[in-house]
Design goal:
Radius of gyration: 22 Å
Oligomer: single chain
GO molecular function: heme binding; iron ion binding; monooxygenase activity; oxidoreductase activity, acting on paired donors, with incorporation or reduction of molecular oxygen
Shape: globular
CATH superfamily of the largest domain: Cytochrome P450
CATH architecture of the largest domain: Orthogonal Bundle
InterPro entries: Cyt_P450, Cyt_P450_CS, Cyt_P450_E_grp-IV, Cyt_P450_sf
Cofactor: heme
Bound molecules: protoporphyrin IX containing FE
Number of domains: 2
Family: Belongs to the cytochrome P450 family.
Protein name: Cytochrome P450
CATH topology of the largest domain: Cytochrome p450
Structural class: alpha+beta
Length: 471
Amino acid sequence: MAQSTVVPPPYDVDHTRVNEWLLNRRRPVRDLAAPPPGSGLRPVPGDPGLPVIGHGIELLRLGINYAMKRYEQHGPVSWARAFGVNMVSATGPDAAQTVLANKDKAYSQQGWEYFIGPFFTRGLMLLDFEEHLYHRRLMQLAFTAERLSGYLGQVSEVVRSGLDDWAPGTGFPVYRSLKQLTLDVATRVFMASSVGADADRVTSAFVDTVRAGTALVRLPVGRWGAGLRGRRVLEDYFRAALPAKRASDSDDLFAALCHARTDEGETFTDDDVVNHMIFLMMAAHDTSTIATSALVYYLGKHPEWQDRVRAESLAMGDQPLTVEALGQLPALDLVLKESMRLVAPVPWMVRRTVKDTELLGHHVPAGVIVTTLSWVNHMLPEYWSDPLRFDPERFAQDRREDRSHRFAYMPFGGGVHKCIGMHFGTYEVKTLAHELVRRFEWSVPADYHVRWDPMALPLPKDGLPVTLRRR
Ligand code: HEM
């Protein structure tokens, strides 16, 4: 595969001198580890960065821009030290495929464990191999087509009543408002309840647990400490709700996990249910909020697409959205795909090698953190025409640029850990968008460019203010 040409940053960073310096300085290249003699493998090139903090500052300040720079400098496989460990970047679709398809069983979820293990312990994404398959099979029972249809009806209800409360105006804070709405959806669909008086405590516990993963200081203080406290709040919350849920026959996801039973009689323990619920709430909440925020942003920037999406939704009338009805919104489908290409809600995926392995001809030793970078893959000009341009038609049948490589487009990951909530998440975001365009019109100034925070997940730094009008 030809090396990528220089790609401008896909989102703005502050063009301060410090950032420019961080982005452009070159350090002497060092090998990560010597390949076994006679293996014919090459070492992984890279460098450790500054003493103690390594390249952590660059990653936190520059995010994908920095990953792109390293790809240009070293190619698809390189290493850097950050957050106290050596990390190998597996950039580009070929590298992502090797890692995520994991044919050699060399890549384990212990990579996530290192960053978010203390906060999301034994969530599905943190389990490995046989144990993971066991839990995934059981959890799948909560995501059958029949269950999804049931959830979808509830999503529509919550979204419709939530949007009735929105007070339009100039500078309307899209991100915060969507985050509240997706939390309301999650508490209704996942728990058949409202977190009510606990809402603020539970919401901030989620925020703290998610942000803790990129703490530079991994001690029970500051960001890391807040994450640990957040985890305790969530555990107490779900554990207290568990007995009633076990006894109930409600149609929410929490109850579905309590009652999941395979033909062989396998079930989840109480601890399993609490761990899975905490992870699921996190996995569903931020990702959907970011995907919807990106979609709202691009529709605000491109009124011709907003009109097109609205025309389809208005033509559908007031009927409740079903799985089939959602399939009849092709423009919305294109726009959502393009929004998640331009802003991958989960921009990187983390693994750890459990044995020495080969990655695109490079020797990667056991015990190393390996990251695949979906957001970078979405931006490579080898796979996408004019990658920085908002161009939903690239996903249309006659172009299908996403088929250029199985791992060129991977907002939901790939391989055995591919997002189990992909269909639910897609329905939720489409429902939100459908109800939004029916009720409102919105715009952003022509010279406005949102900045996505490279900390943990890409959140709009300024909360994404738009001018919102009721139709
Ligand atoms: C737009 C919305 C979403 C996006 C972009 C997204 C993205 C992802 C990605 C990239 C992964 C793979 C991580 C890896 O391989 O390391 C993943 C895994 C996962 N997601 Fe999602 N997700 C979304 C919504 C949801 C929702 C709504 C749920 C639950 C209802 C959910 C539950 C999960 C779970 C449980 C896993 C772990 C799967 C496993 O390890 O087997 N996600 N998601």
